[in-house]
């Protein structure tokens, strides 16, 4: 039978190698000793290989660097949020109640004006040699007081309805008639970024055509899904059925550079990029992710032409956070 000679590591003591020589075939105890020593040697070799692997330097990360460019108008025309065509049935009902309350207030005010005029006329006649009785003057005064109380009550009712309506609908209440008649529709818009609402936005109608909507006012409501403020926009009613949810595209007014998404890494809660300040040397730099566009983020802290890592940034971050001595 051919015998396979073991290849010993230089780290294994020579005495162990000598002791591990195969025994004669007829030596039973020697065979057991041979197997035990061989297992010790193999374990030592495995440990040495693990130590050597840990001590070997990690290969440097492969990085790709790109120059940043200035933001263009095309970059800032972005998907900025969602718009929902609101159901204004409740608004129409509240507007009707408010209109009724206004009519009742005006009617009460007109009646008070008439009763006060009658009271003044009777007082003048009573003062002119009692041409009317004191009782007539007293009755007229009581009527005027009742009418004044009715005006106060009507005003209180109108204020309550108006407060509830404006708390729910805000400035939309002023155009309730146009919305109820479907001359226009109300769009409840929530932007994904905390940016000032633009004067105009572009949405897509049910048939796919682009529609321009105009800003009305900030709404006293919050989008339940995004937990963002709602802004009310007005658009022509055609092609915008109630309940339609569509993407809002708007031009984000901003100066700076476009930072690609692939360049941004997160160091805890801080967004960073790695800037190449000299050949093959990279330094972390904090960037803003407040204004997100289709291809990345707009940042004003970097200049056009700055070279940043767009591939391999995560490996650089891991290496920079690695404790000394590891």
Quick tags:
single chain; 39% helix; 326 residues; Elongation Factor Tu (Ef-tu), domain 3; conserved putative lor/sdh protein from methanococcus maripaludis s2 fold; six-stranded antiparallel beta sheet; alpha+beta; 7 helices
What is the structure about, briefly put?
By secondary structure, this protein is α+β, with helices and mostly antiparallel strands. The chain has helices spanning 14-19, 28-55, 73-76, 89-127, 134-169, 176-180, 313-320, and strands at residues 64-67, 69-70, 77-85, 184-191, 200-204, 210-222, 229-236, 245-251, 257-260, 265-267, 270-278, 281-286, 292-293, 296-299, 307-311.
Q: How does this model look, in words?
A:
The protein folds into 4 domains: 14-55; 64-73 and 255-320, Beta Barrel (conserved putative lor/sdh protein from methanococcus maripaludis s2 fold), CATH 2.40.420.20; 78-87 and 181-251, Elongation Factor Tu (Ef-tu), domain 3 (Beta Barrel); 89-174. It is elongated, with a radius of gyration of 42 Å. Helix content is 39%, strand content 27%. The two termini are 48 Å apart. A hairpin with a 6-residue loop joins strand 6 and strand 7. A 6-stranded antiparallel β-sheet has the order 5-6-7-4-3-8. The protein is built from 7 helices and 15 strands. The chain is of the alpha+beta class.
